[in-house]
């Protein structure tokens, strides 16, 4: 069954949902073969809960929108309260302001989701950064910031998951990069950070498998987001970047979000410890 989208301005979404579900045969019904308000409320409570960290970024917001459209209950997490409020209003979902580099704040967000929504079935950490400098002009501050935004946030997500998923299991999705998988000039800092994320995925997936907590990562190529606009907004660098990808184009946030949603889907619960490329062939194929 596909997502049920509530029309804007609907004063009674439960009535709309009841009407929408009437033709779905496998759902429980009353003695008159009708799905009741109570059944819809029960089904709503049982919908998966996902915490999206970095929800106001290009990939994070696309992921949150996709999950919400599929019926997931979503907690949006970001340090940018203004953008969080706008996205939360758009999706009619709660949010939590947090610095994703701080373990305590990420754990507080996860506990907030657990208290407000009843559980946390998945955590998707979309926080990241982009730095294009050779090592000899990369400052210590540059490197430390890159590690914080990519490695520390990923580690914080794992810690939070181990707390709120220890009894019921769940799924964690982190982000690597094609830069960690192939040699790209001027990517030393981000390649080192994302390489660390890949190591974290393998180790954490092993550690928490016994708790049925799955850990995987997505390794995108260049995706058209606000973070990478400095590259794709300039015709020469955009064309050069497209040429690196065998499919001849850059990725869209929605294409990355699609895999993130797939990885946290309970139907795909036998997948863990994997780094999956969504990169137009960049890391695995040769052009020319």
From TrEMBL:
InterPro entries: KR_dom, NAD(P)-bd_dom_sf, SDR_DHRS6-like, SDR_fam. SUPFAM superfamilies: NAD(P)-binding Rossmann-fold domains. Keywords: Oxidoreductase. Residues 48-221 form the Ketoreductase domain. Pfam families: adh_short_C2 (PF13561). Coiled coil: none annotated. The keyword Metal-binding does not apply. Its EC number is 1.1.1.100. GO terms for molecular function: 3-oxoacyl-[acyl-carrier-protein] reductase (NADPH) activity. Belongs to the short-chain dehydrogenases/reductases (SDR) family. This is 3-oxoacyl-[acyl-carrier-protein] reductase FabG. It comes from Bremerella volcania.
């Amino acid at each position: 069954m596909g997502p049920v989208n509530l029309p804007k301005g609907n004063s009674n979404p439960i009535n709309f949902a009841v009407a929408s579900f009437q033709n779905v045969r496998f759902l429980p019904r009353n003695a008159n073969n009708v799905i009741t308000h109570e059944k819809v409320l029960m089904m709503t409570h049982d919908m998966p809960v996902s915490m999206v960290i970095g929800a106001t970024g290009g990939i994070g917001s696309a992921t949150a929108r996709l999950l919400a459209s599929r019926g997931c209950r979503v907690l949006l997490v970001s340090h940018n309260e203004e953008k969080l409020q706008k996205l939360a209003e758009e999706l009619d979902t709660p949010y939590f302001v947090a610095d994703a580099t701080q373990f305590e704040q990420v754990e507080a967000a996860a506990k907030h989701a657990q208290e407000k929504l009843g559980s946390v079935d998945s955590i998707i950490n979309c926080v990241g950064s982009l730095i294009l400098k050779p090592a000899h002009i990369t400052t210590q501050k540059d490197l430390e910031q890159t590690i914080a935004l990519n490695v520390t946030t990923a580690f914080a997500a794992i810690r939070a998951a181990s707390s709120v998923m220890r009894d019921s299991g769940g799924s964690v999705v982190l982000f690597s990069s094609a830069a960690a998988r192939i040699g790209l000039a001027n990517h030393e800092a981000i390649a080192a950070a994302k390489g660390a994320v890949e190591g974290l995925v393998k180790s954490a997936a092993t550690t928490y498998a016994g708790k049925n907590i799955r850990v995987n990562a997505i390794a995108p190529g260049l995706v058209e987001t606000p973070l990478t606009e400095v590259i794709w907004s300039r015709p020469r660098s955009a064309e050069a970047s497209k040429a690196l990808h065998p499919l001849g184009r850059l990725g869209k946030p929605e294409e990355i979000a699609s895999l993130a949603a797939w990885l946290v889907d309970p139907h795909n619960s036998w997948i863990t410890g994997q780094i999956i490329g969504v990169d137009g062939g960049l890391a695995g194929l040769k052009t020319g």
